[in-house]
Amino acid sequence: MRKWIWMYFHIGLMVIATLHGLANRPAQENLVQLPSSLEVVDPVALKYPACPEDYTDWRETIPKIVVVPALEKDLVGFKEALGFKESRGDYFTINTLGYMGKYQFGNSTLGSLGVYDAERFMKNPKMQEEIFVMNLSRNKWILRRYIAAYDQKWVEGHRITESGILAAAHLAGAGNVKKYLSSLGEQDTYDAYGSCISDYIQEFSGYDLEDLPAIHNPRWNKSAIVGQ
Fold first, then answer.
1. Are the C-beta atoms of 198 and 176 separated by less than 8 Å?
2. SUPFAM superfamilies under this entry (predicted)?
3. For residue range 139-181, what is the model confidence (pLDDT) as tens digits?
4. What's the CA gap between 112 and 177, in Å, rounded?
5. Any alpha helices (H) in the chain, and if so which ranges?
6. N or C: which end of the chain has fewer CB within 10 A?
7. Phi (first) and psi of residue 183, to 5 degrees
8. Where are the domains of the chain?
């Protein structure tokens, strides 16, 4: 009998300790939900293929040393989190539907930004980063009124933020995000892999993108890459 009493006593202590730990966790909305491989504590030096002006094959280029800062809930943290979600951060991947690069762009989106050479796009990480920010700025302009109207409101249990809206626009297009918000979440949009607008709004909520400009019709200029 005494043995059973001690067993229940220890089980009770374990339950109390677990509940105490849960009660003292920080609010979920204050956490940056990133995989452990992206949780950089201190700046670190990494090597990646440097892309020369003539866009020769990246595999034949000399590695370049760059310093990656610790991630915060800002534009850098947003880019890296979304890039990991889309491709695990791989600049040189193409998925089964033909979407390309770290941020998984399609030809139609690239064309709307003035990029018509997919091969050059795939070989140039710097170009991919600039195109991603350019597309963010365009979506911010297209959705500026929706961002102003819905920011910090709740739709279908999800807190709406500017970064969540822009992440969802990257997934499904600005037009589908407008439909989602106008219908208060009833018109959600899924991609071929099962990701949806509401998932991205929740997962990428709360990043500070205030300094990101809203640009009406950005166009990529080759000179912005070549020669730098």
1. no
2. Lysozyme-like (SSF53955)
3. 999 999 999 999 999 999 999 999 999 999 999 999 999 999 9
4. 18
5. 2-23, 75-87, 107-112, 118-123, 125-142, 144-150, 162-172, 174-182, 197-203
6. N
7. -90, 5
8. 71-224
